[in-house]
Design a protein that fits this description.
This protein is α/β, with parallel strands linked by helices and 398 residues long. The protein folds into two domains: 146 residues, Aspartate Aminotransferase, domain 1 (Alpha-Beta Complex), CATH 3.90.1150.10; 225 residues, Type I PLP-dependent aspartate aminotransferase-like (Major domain) (Aspartate Aminotransferase, domain 2, 3-Layer(aba) Sandwich), CATH 3.40.640. The longest helix has 22 residues. The termini are far apart.
Length: 398
């Protein structure tokens, strides 16, 4: 079989690879604590499941419009108006099989070979992978704990070229948990106003997981003057614990939305009709459970942070949102495991931790090394045991 060069560009993400390895080891009887996937361990709310059941019983099991039913688009419009102070119409909305497909559709619809996408490092692995798949060029901009893992206006200005098409902006951030303030967003907007050829991908997937009383503000809310070249990306996966339902959505200029629908029509066609009905119920229904679960994530963050900070050689920045901690393992680089292997990269660190019973994705895939990511979207018991294992592994290094 002769495979295309496209296959090489469609790499498996670090988090997905780590999660798959965890499943394989568990199937083989190995005791592994998986801290890889960004998946809430809560159940989908009961009223959402009931809505899906009713939809099936009522025969809503057929094709729908390519990028979402009228009912779903109206629910998304109402959500943006209610929660984000953003005024969209149904023609500005596109629904797909997850937020990743929204990103995929948008980049495939807009990138020509050699076009550039500015990506703050660290960022979700899919941004760079999909950019490369669409024959674009990821332009990583290195951030760090000194600036809260957030891109600055000066960095953005320096990264923009005549070939720049998009800025990827994820707040709260996967993997760092960074949350941009309205002032920080407006500072970036001031740069972008000088470069009208650059569009903004505002990935708000973790908007309801913010801590310490912060109010989430979307880029479009902070900078409405750029709404005609901003795509807001969101979905049901993180907010309502619906990762397996595969329903994401985007909101942006109608011309872009129509182009994205054309891309989707030639790949997956419409997202699941049942998932669409379920998300209508999630968006239109009671939201108290969302607040409760955010509070639980904050409890976990506050419990696990001191445990991680006590592990020799590790350093981490307190996340303001999402359910990840991005951990520097720079002090482990150059040390040796009990088996005598040198830890030369964070990939080696990930392999060593896997041998120690903890699965984590390394920072290389997120564009910033030497780090690894921990997801605290799991029980406190597992988090505490994972920290004990990492602490034991640290103390064995020579």
């Amino acid at each position: 079989m002769f495979l295309s060069k496209r296959v090489d560009r469609a790499r498996i993400s670090a988090s997905a690879a780590s999660a798959q390895r965890t499943r394989e080891l568990r199937a083989a009887g190995v005791d592994i604590i998986g801290l890889s996937q960004g998946e809430p361990d809560f159940a989908t709310p009961d009223h959402v499941i009931e809505a899906a059941y009713r939809a099936m019983r009522e025969g809503q099991t057929r094709y729908t419009p390519v990028d979402g039913t009228p009912e779903l688009k109206e629910a998304i419009v109402a959500k943006f108006r209610r929660e984000n102070r953003l005024a969209f119409k149904p023609e500005n909305i596109s629904a797909a099989a997850g937020g990743k497909q929204i990103l995929y559709n948008a980049l495939m619809a807009t990138l020509d070979p050699g076009d550039e996408v500015v990506i703050p490092a660290p960022s979700w692995v899919a941004y760079a992978i999909i950019t490369e798949f669409a024959e674009g060029v990821p332009v990583w901009v290195r951030t760090g704990p000194g600036n809260g893992f957030k891109i600055t206006p000066a960095q953005l200005e320096a990264a923009i070229t005549p070939r720049t098409k998009w800025l990827m902006l994820n707040s709260p951030s996967n993997p760092s948990g960074a949350v941009y303030s309205p002032e920080e967003l407006r500072g970036l907007a001031a740069v972008l106003e000088r470069h009208p050829h650059v569009w903004i991908m505002a990935d708000d997937m973790y908007e309801h997981i913010v801590f310490d009383g912060r109010r989430f503000v979307s880029f479009s809310e902070a900078s409405p003057q750029l709404s005609d070249r901003t795509l807001v990306v969101n979905g049901a996966s993180k907010t309502y614990a619906m990762t397996g339902w595969r329903l994401g959505y985007g909101a942006g200029p109608a011309t872009l939305i129509r182009a994205m629908a054309r891309m989707q029509a030639q790949s997956s066609l419409n997202p699941s009709s049942i998932s669409q009905a379920a998300v209508v119920a999630a968006l239109n229904g009671p939201q108290d459970i969302v607040v409760q679960r955010c509070a639980e994530f904050q409890v976990r963050r506050d419990k696990v942070m001191p445990l991680l900070e006590a592990i020799p050689g590790l350093s981490c920045t307190r996340p303001d949102g999402a359910f990840y901690i991005y951990i520097s393992c720079a002090d482990w680089i150059g040390r040796r495991t009990p088996a005598g292997q040198e830890l030369a990269t964070d990939v080696d660190v990930g392999a060593y931790l896997l041998e120690s019973g903890v699965a984590v994705p390394e920072g290389t895939g997120y564009g910033l090394s030497p780090y690894f990511r921990v997801s605290f979207a799991t029980s406190l018991d597992k988090l505490e045991e994972a920290c004990r294992r990492m602490d034991a592994a640290a103390r064995k290094l020579a």
